[in-house]
């Protein structure tokens, strides 16, 4: 099979799976691009650009479902956006970048395997200062690696019992979007260039994200999709951490 066709097919699947659980998919896109041998200076802006379309689509669907909470979102976003921009200005060694990405991929693996049915009978009140601190740290790391931060934010929200599963997905989707914008702005200020191939990648990711967000927010049980995505990300994580390819 032609590698280009294979890449597009996998990109469609990744966008669908991530959007179905309320994520933009940057970590999945980065893993996919790393496996196909793309350089970090191409990977970061590309993943953030793809994130914009998929995460916004996911947010709209979850917002329509009545799951979004502004009171929880705004302290996180207010702190994360400037730090995501600053993180986007930083360039790190390609080998270190891939190792760090590999470890970060373990977060969504844990999220999909161990936080499948983390629903609580009584939600706990949000602590604004803790929320702002979390937003700043996640924002900086998001800009540095080229992710939206949802894979880090989601398990924390669930562990703190601030949100339900659906609320977590809705808040994470918009959080990913604003961080991706800020991180991409940081990348653009460094003079990065977008390639013509990105137009096709965005179209494919948008199609997959649109379908995934619709079915994830309104239709089916997500456990089988989460298991599948966790396995794929675990393999990608192993490749990035333990190989030099």
Notes on the structure:
This protein is mostly helical and 245 residues long. The chain starts with a helix and ends with a helix. 77% of the residues lie in helices and 0% in strands. It has one domain. The chain has helices at 3-20, 26-35, 40-64, 70-88, 94-104, 106-114, 128-145, 150-160, 165-189, 197-218, 223-242.
Largest sheet: none
Overall geometric form: globular
Classify the oligomer.
single chain
The topology string of helices and strands comes to HHHHHHHHHHH
Low-confidence stretches: none
Whole-number average pLDDT? 81
Q: How many structural domains are formed by the residues?
A: 1
Q: Classify the helix fraction into a percent range.
A: over 70%
Please give the radius of gyration in angstroms.
16 Å
Which structural category fits the helices and strands?
mainly alpha
Strand content: under 5%
Distance between the termini: 21 Å
How many alpha or pi helices?
Answer: 11
Number of strands: 0
Descriptors for this entry?
245 residues; mainly alpha
Topology at a glance:
Layout lengths: L2 H18 L5 H10 L4 H25 L5 H19 L5 H11 L1 H9 L13 H18 L4 H11 L4 H25 L7 H22 L4 H20 L3
Summary, kept brief:
The chain has 245 residues and is mostly helical. It has 11 helices and no strands.
């Amino acid at each position: 099979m032609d590698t280009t066709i294979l890449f597009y097919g996998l990109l469609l699947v990744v966008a669908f799976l991530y959007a179905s659980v309320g994520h933009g998919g940057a970590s999945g896109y980065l893993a996919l691009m790393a496996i196909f041998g793309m350089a970090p200076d191409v990977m970061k802006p590309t993943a953030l650009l793809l994130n914009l379309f998929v995460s916004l689509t996911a947010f709209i669907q979850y917002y329509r479902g009545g799951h979004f909470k502004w009171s929880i979102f705004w302290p996180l976003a207010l702190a994360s956006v400037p730090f995501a921009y600053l993180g986007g200005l930083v360039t790190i060694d390609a080998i270190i970048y891939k190792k760090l990405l590999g470890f970060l991929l373990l977060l969504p693996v844990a999220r999909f395997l161990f936080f499948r049915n983390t629903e609580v009978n009584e939600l706990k009140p949000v602590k604004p200062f803790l929320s702002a601190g979390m937003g700043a740290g996640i924002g900086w790391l998001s800009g540095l690696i080229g992710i939206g931060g949802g894979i880090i934010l989601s398990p924390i929200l669930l562990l703190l019992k601030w949100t339900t599963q659906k609320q977590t997905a809705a808040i994470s989707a918009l959080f990913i979007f604003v961080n991706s914008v800020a991180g991409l702005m940081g990348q653009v200020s460094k003079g990065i260039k977008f390639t013509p191939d990105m137009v096709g990648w965005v179209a494919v990711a948008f199609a997959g994200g649109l379908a995934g967000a619709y079915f994830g927010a309104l239709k089916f049980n997500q456990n089988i999709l989460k298991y599948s995505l966790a396995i794929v990300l675990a393999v990608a994580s192993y490749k990035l951490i333990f190989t030099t390819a």
